[in-house]
Specification:
By secondary structure, the protein is mostly helical. The chain is 87% helix and 0% strand.
Amino acid sequence: MGSITVGNLDDDVKTRLRTRAARNGRSMAEEVRLILREAIDREQTKESNGRRLEAWIRLYGDEMTYARQHESLRTNSASLIVAATGGVLALLASEAMSLEEQPLLGIVAAGLVAVINVIGWFIGEKHYERTRRHQAIASAYRKVISDNCQLGAVLTDERCRADRCHKKEFECWERRSLHKLWGTIHVVFFLLGLVMVCICMVFYFWCSR
């Protein structure tokens, strides 16, 4: 084992070191070795904690990115289906399609409205489930960061305070779920499609007589 010699040690430091060693029932040399070992271990622990904290922050950022991606995909798919539904309904309402002359085509078009909105509802629910999953994992990572970082705890407290202020200001709208509103759009268009199918079938059987 190696040894080192420490020179120019202050008398006050030497006195306190002797007192500490006597209090702990150790020699001065043994007390110095213990102090050095604890200092090195604390430094290594600090570096290790810093690396782990960076890893948690990176994982948190990844999960929030995945959540935003699913939310964007849900919005885009819903917008596309609503646009397609609007196009089919516009075709049904136009003079180019006479239900008396083409009742079967009207049934197909109206049925398509119902089907694509059922599909749209399922797509929206799946993307919502994925979004909530990634948000839940991100929240778990954020808690770890807050528990292991003083700044993280401060930011969490500020976020909670801001969230309470927001809920108080928008109490009425806070209770409305945007997810449910998106789902309602698909349900309304699905029901509208079923109504249009019934109307077209009435025209079909009436024209077949």
